[in-house]
Write a sequence for this structure.
C-alpha cells in the first residue's frame, strides 16, 4: 500500500515519453535524495530511492510518484516533504500538473500536514505507531 501522486495531461490524450524531462528529473532527484536506482524498459522508466521508498515512474508519457506507508510521526513528515520536493521537480520538468488523489487536491494546494496525518492513520491501523 502506498501514497501516490499522479501527473498527466488533461483528458485522456496520451503523450509520448519525454526522455529529456526524465533525465532532468533523475539528475535533480539524485541531488536531493542521493543514491537512486534506475530501471529502464522503454517506454517505461523507474527511479527508486531505497532510504525513503520514494519511487518515480515515467510510463508511456504519464508520471507518478509513490512512497510506501512505512512512516509515521517525524519520519513521515520528512519523507512527505521529500516526496513533494520531487513532485515539484517532476512538475517543472514535465510541464504537467500533479494531483494528490488521497487529498483530492492539485499539488499546488497540498497541505503537507494533511498527508502526514494520513501516514499516521495508516500506521495506527496497522499497529505501527
Amino acid at each position: 500500500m502506498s501514497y501516490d501522486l499522479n501527473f498527466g495531461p488533461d483528458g485522456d490524450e496520451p503523450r509520448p515519453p519525454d526522455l529529456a524531462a526524465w533525465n532532468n528529473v533523475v539528475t535533480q532527484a539524485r541531488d536531493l535524495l542521493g543514491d537512486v536506482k534506475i530501471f529502464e524498459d522503454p517506454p517505461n522508466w523507474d527511479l527508486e530511492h531505497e532510504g525513503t521508498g520514494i519511487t518515480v515512474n515515467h510510463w508511456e508519457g504519464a508520471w507518478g510518484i509513490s512512497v510506501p506507508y512505512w512512516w509515521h510521526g517525524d519520519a513521515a513528515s520528512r519523507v512527505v516533504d521529500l516526496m513533494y520536493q520531487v513532485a515539484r521537480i517532476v512538475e517543472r520538468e514535465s510541464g504537467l500538473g500533479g494531483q494528490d488523489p488521497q487529498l483530492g487536491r492539485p499539488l499546488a494546494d497540498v497541505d503537507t500536514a494533511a498527508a502526514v496525518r494520513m501516514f499516521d492513520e495508516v500506521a495506527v491501523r496497522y499497529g505501527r505507531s
The CA atoms of residues 7 and 98 lie 4 Å apart. DSSP finds three helices and seven strands in the chain. The mean pLDDT is 91. The first helix runs from residue 19 to 33.
